[in-house]
Structure formats: structure tokens, C-alpha cells
Amino acid sequence: MDETHKDNDVSSGAIALHNAAKESRYRESNWREGKPVAKKPWCKFFIPKHGDGTFTDVAGITKIKDEHENGRGITIGDFNRDGLFDVAYGNWEGDHRLFLQEVDKDGNSEFKNVATSEFADPTPIRTVITADFDNDGDTEIFMNNIFMGQNLQPNKLFRLKALANRKDVSISPLDIGDALESQGAGTGSAFGRY
């Protein structure tokens, strides 16, 4: 966030962003198809900033590292409503993940994969989106898939309902009607209110 930008108005949701790629030494060319092309310690999946423009990879110690898969879509939200960001992403023809963040008494973050077998079921994923699509107060995750060979892969939609303990979520599939696209023709998706 560009905290000094004249157009910032957090109360209305208008937030100007600052492109910090150059100062953080991150280069887009370090990634291709969700996998690193060159090993750089500052451009991996989960990377906290040091304040001097550099980053450190902590994916392993936070248990979110997924080095044997090929990530294709990612979304972030507070799925269990505990005030911490959680991560859901799709892996190309690999198990999809739904990570809830936990913080121990010393303030250390760790992620726990809570994806059900139906959520994790491998597909040729293209995009993953978080929104409250039906305006019921619960979070939904839309998974956009593409047709691969003889393997038809329709889109999927899941409801994430935060449980009362704010540590867990229930995950249930939803009927998405025409958005199912049973022929799996999607190459991307977006969300907006019209």
C-alpha cells in the first residue's frame, strides 16, 4: 500500500498500491508456470520483508511449502474469521490446498492444510477466486478449470463456513448452475459486482 498516495481512502475501499518489485529485487522472469526458474532466496512463495527491500523464504518453517506441485491459481482471505490471512490455491493436475494460518504463543505463524478430498481433487486449474458470491456472509471459493484431452473438468464452487471456535472451517461444494461449464472451457476468471 502506498500510504502517502493522495487518492487513498481506506473507509471507501480506495487503496493506492506502490510497485515495490524493483526495490525488493524481485523479477517476474524468476517464475514460469508457478515454478521458480532461477533459485533466488527473495522470490519464493511466502516471503516476509526485512524493511531493507529484501525478503527471506520461510515457506518451509511455516509449513506452506509445496515444492513438488505446480501452483496455478491462488487466493487469500480470512476463511475462519480469526483475523489472520489464510491461503487457498490450485495445483496444476495436483492436489489443491486450503491453508489456515495459526499463530503460536511466541507469535510464530504456521499453516495447516485443511482441504477436504473433494476440494483437493486434482484438476487442470486456471484460476482460484475468493468472494461472497451469494451474499450470505460466508466465503466461497471458485475454481476455474480447463478441458484437457479427454478429461472434462468442470468448474467448482465451495462454501467455507467459519466454525464457532474460529480455528476451523467447514468446506462444502455448491451447485453453480451455468457457471459449471461442464466442457471445461475456462482459461481464466474474474469477480466483480455489476
UniProtKB/TrEMBL annotation:
Entry keyword 4Fe-4S: no
Keyword Signal: yes
Keyword annotations from UniProtKB, A to Z: Signal
UniProt-recorded name of the protein: VCBS repeat-containing protein
